[in-house]
Amino acid sequence: MAKQAREIRLKSRPVGMPEAANFEVVTVELKDPGPGEVLVRNGWMSVDPYMRGRMYDRPSYVPPFALGEALQGGAVGTVVKSNDPNFAAGDLVESNLGWREAFVSTGAPLTKLAGGVPPQAYLGVLGMPGMTAYTSFHRIGDPKPGNVVFVSGAGGAVGSTVCQIAKIRECTVVASAGSDEKLDWLKSVGVDEVVNYKKGNLLENVRKAAPKGIDIYFDNVGGEHLEVALEVARPWARFIECGMISVYNDKEPSPGPRNMPYIVGKRIKMQGFIVFDFIDMREQFITEMTQWVKDGRIKWQETIENGIENAPKAFLTLFSGGNAGKMLVKLD
Amino acid sequence: MAKQAREIRLKSRPVGMPEAANFEVVTVELKDPGPGEVLVRNGWMSVDPYMRGRMYDRPSYVPPFALGEALQGGAVGTVVKSNDPNFAAGDLVESNLGWREAFVSTGAPLTKLAGGVPPQAYLGVLGMPGMTAYTSFHRIGDPKPGNVVFVSGAGGAVGSTVCQIAKIRECTVVASAGSDEKLDWLKSVGVDEVVNYKKGNLLENVRKAAPKGIDIYFDNVGGEHLEVALEVARPWARFIECGMISVYNDKEPSPGPRNMPYIVGKRIKMQGFIVFDFIDMREQFITEMTQWVKDGRIKWQETIENGIENAPKAFLTLFSGGNAGKMLVKLD
Asked: Could you tell me the fold of the domain covering B128-277?
């Protein structure tokens, strides 16, 4: 293990769409781990859409990233040297100290992982995206067999997991994504109807795919999709508001849906959440999802960039829709 | 009792703001009540914002009003003659057959009223508006002592009741209405802070009135108020979506709030409802509200038009904000 490691820092706050110039690669010296500290070499790091929010300097549920400091995010790594009795060299661990090749843990939460699945699964279906999908779909969506579920951003890590959980729960699933390749994969894992939002009129296409309307909308994108979902919603529909990637990079706030009064008339419940709100479901999630993965009932796709220097590129890919499934950066 | 009675029919569907020409007064012959039928003379009828929705010819939770037929709505009347063993002459009854001076009930639901309060209270605090306020505030709003509650359209029948229930539940109440007279009355019944939405910048004024933000938003108006509520909402705020009167008469759909992503980031729950959804709370509502009325803990204002011919005028008043409290038409 070199005594140096590279990390990605936020050089300037993006205005609108982030670009490579907002980031910089910096090489830092790693000190030896002191008493109670652990040296970890990251093997995989995650890039996720929510990170865009932390690049704004504004109050939110997590503090903004600081300029000139390394970014943060999910990472899976291996313990190189440990002065903490809870960890030993060779342990597989998860942390929120991604965006760097290695780090000395000085009190930041570090979770030992069971293994038995590919390590990067802990950043996907068995990690934050999987838990986001699992907890909110059950807690807010309240799915019933026969419900029609509409998922936007269905090609991504969260969306593709929601689609498959909804099938396990005996729902009819309509998925929207921006490429036929993503949609073909979704069909291959059991999705009933697919809509390419880049082709033709979104409302007409969703109406065709869900002629009887929808009971649950899992929203990853906001914007036009949200308006369409309000339009086709059945009475008492549940809208799981996971993200609105379509507007994250707006320089000026975009107007919301023109059909908001449907919330009243159709008695819609629209609810936002953060995955940590459902932390009480963590054990249930891990148990059930691990079984589904082992049984081959939940599958996933990965899009991988290699090397810390390509982490900003991987992050930008999320907003062009270039990733199929979980977007990852392989660091070792 | 004359054998004739006047009724108000929908002559044409309003485009945008309704006007007098959309309605007509027609005199009809009343047949004698047959076996099992009841002749009722209405004493009071209600006009409510939701009726605007039924004037559109579109699918909704209730069928649209038919052109050339009498409108419908809450009414309190007295039984004149009864061939139904459940009713006797002189009984005070509630029906959905307002917009007419008298009617022969042929199977339409008729509810005998207990009395002991002014009869028109059954169209207000003890009727549909009161039940709308009571049920949704508790079921969706989930109020806790110390919560800050923001009520738009607070001068109306529903809004003014919500304000007082919120005070009983030990919340801090910020009320918005369009006239200082309405706001003075609201302060007189215990509302903590008031905002006249016609004066100055709404967002700034609400921020001043609720410097720590809001936990519950009771929405009667939609539009700019909804955007402001999203802006000042605290994490986990509950939005009770009762109505959006500000957009009911739009000829073209208006854009929604520009800050919809707050639903995600602040984990807001926004939920629409119809009073019938909470019918299981009816007994609890009647019991508690009757007590509050008798104890003087819930007060109300009325704005009264006299004579069936003025019912359309009373209805139009709802959209100009000309009513203080419950808008009623006195028919006898």
From this structure: Rossmann fold (3.40.50)
Low-confidence ranges of chain A (pLDDT < 70): 1-2
The hierarchical CATH code for the domain B4-124+300-330 is 3.90.180.10
* Residue type for position A253: P
Q: Select from B326, B317, B299, B22 the least CA-distant residue to B163.
A: B299
The CATH number that domain A129-277 falls under is 3.40.50.720
Chain B positions with Cβ closer than 8 Å to A: 53, 60-61, 222, 226, 235, 241-244, 247-248, 253-274, 277
Question: Which residue ranges make up each domain of chain A?
Answer: 4-124+300-330, 129-277
Answer whether B149's CB lies under 8 Å from B125's CB: no
State the Cα–Cα distance between residues A49 and A134, nearest whole angstrom: 18
Cα distance between residue B177 and residue B202, in whole Å: 11
Q: What is the ipTM of this complex?
A: 0.88
C-alpha to C-alpha distance for A75 and A95, rounded to whole angstroms = 5
**Per the CB < 8 Å rule, is B259 touching A267?**
no
Average pLDDT for residues B63-80, to the nearest whole number?
Answer: 95
Between CA B174 and CA B163 the distance in angstroms is 8
Dist CA A271 CA B267 (whole Å): 7
- Predicted local distance difference test score (pLDDT) of residue A47: 96
CA-to-CA distance for A166 and A143, rounded, in angstroms? 8
How do strand B193-196 and strand B172-177 relate by DSSP bridges? parallel
Are A23 and A312 within 8 A, CB to CB? Answer: yes
Amino acid (1-letter code) at residue B37: E
Dihedral angle of Cα B115, B121, B125, B126, to the nearest 10 degrees: 30
